[in-house]
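Protocol step 4 of 6: structure prediction from sequence.
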Amino acid sequence: MLDGTEMLKLLVGLKQAGDIDLAWDEEVLATVCEPQDQPRVHAMAAIVHDLLGAFDYAASPEYLATREKLLTPEKQREAAARCGRSLTELLTTNEAYALIPAARHPLLDELKRLAASFG
């Protein structure tokens, strides 16, 4: 029977091969674990499926830390100034939408609507 590390390797391999459903196959389980371990294997398989299925390296702490290192204080100041300029040009360009996170785009839309209302 497999130990914890071997089980993780098996489940990750199954997920990467697109065969994670085999973690619920009775014949497969009989070869890798005791019957009383099956609920734990199912729970582990569900977690592996979720973690690898939703994996986004760009959102990982590792990537964000690397990106943060590249952002010097000078570049941050330049970007902030550029963002300010883009807000002043909101009625004529869409540059602000490239600088402001998408979750805040409704605020840009409202700001644009209000600015346009001045005629």
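Step 5 (inspection) to follow. The chain has a mean pLDDT of 92.
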